[in-house]
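request received
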Amino acid sequence: MCLAIPARINTIEGTEADVEIGGIIQKASLMLTPGARVGDYVLLHTGYAISIVNEIEAEQTLALFAEIARLTEPE
Amino acid sequence: MKLVSEFRQSELVPGLVSSIRHHATREARIMEFCGGHTVAIMKFGLRQLLPPTLTLTSGPGCPVCVTDNADLDKAIALAGLPNVIVASFGDMLRVPGSSSSLQEAKAAGGDVRIVYSTLDALTLARTNPEKSVIFIGIGFETTAPTVAASILQAAREGLNNYYVLSLHKLCPPVIKGLLDSGEINLQGLICPGHVSAIIGSRPWEFIARDYGIPCVVSGFEPLDILQSIEMLAQQVARDEARVEIAYRRGVNPEGNTIAINIMEQVFAPAPARWRGIGEVASSGLRLRPEFERFDAELNFEFETEVTVIREGCICGDILRGMKSPTQCALFSRVCTPINPVGPCMVSSEGSCAAYYNYGESHE
Ligand code: SF4
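response:
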């Protein structure tokens, strides 16, 4: 029930946005994330964007995983 | 899907697993609080990747499962009232109360509608002005701000036929309740990522500080969960107890302060009953006096039946982290997702459903 999925904001009108999830467009409320901008990814939960995804952090986490994979590679 | 598939790349799994094995030299029991984590752990077979020193235990993090029968009976009673539309998330419909369910109330003529969002419930209220629309407010801190936002919206619009039955629950207080009971002994806690997207990581700090239990806030993809376990294993190995955020793309220490403000504007903490756990102080939310006219409990007269718990169902023990679904005598023999006896089998995030759907092939 606490499921939230990353959705990309396509358009914003007031507190309402059109967001895209895997090619499907749906409406989302930005009442809880008024700072969200077109192009941002937000975590969408029951029709509301509950947070703006930090894409820089996402990349850094993935880089860390790649580094761990490199370091633990069997010799 | 961007930001999802990257966190499922199987070629990155072995590195994290070997790092976990390297650090996990000491025995540790780790609780994954959130049902969403339980599902991912079972679905991706993550338990099978862990060294024998680490044990994972499911926690009470399934809002549908922890809703007490007495509270469910209230929702069912409301559905029996005339001129009322009960709007609920779909997961709730089949959950058995004392003797009925919202689905049975619907079959008996009650107007029960499935909604995906409080936005849909508001639309129902706008388009049915002659009826009272009651939204069954189930959920943790992730969901409560969305319900609060709907109440503020209804107030702005002057919608006078929209109500909420607030059965919301708060996560940090129930963890405190579980730890204070002394029943469970944990060396690590995987904190719920989407609850923390709202409340931040600070509300978990007392667990590390006062109970000495390492905490890591985790995302929901397999690599997220393995990373969190790796960070916990490192803390255990070093005898540390801190709160760390693995899910940094979604969570910051302060959380979403706008959402917190909206939630606090509408709701105040109140005692709440949790299935299997009992009443926990300040672990629920009630509407503040200035929003009383939206409170379904105060604005409708209804009678609930005497609360009964189905015999043989050990959901309560499972939610307390005491037992696993396979220890239930009814599991998969009598109780299945098609014919569920308890809420842990009904909810898509219930432990019993996760074990049933994904367990056998892996164990
Ligand atoms: S298997 Fe069914 S009866 Fe047993 S604890 Fe789970 S939900 Fe209850």
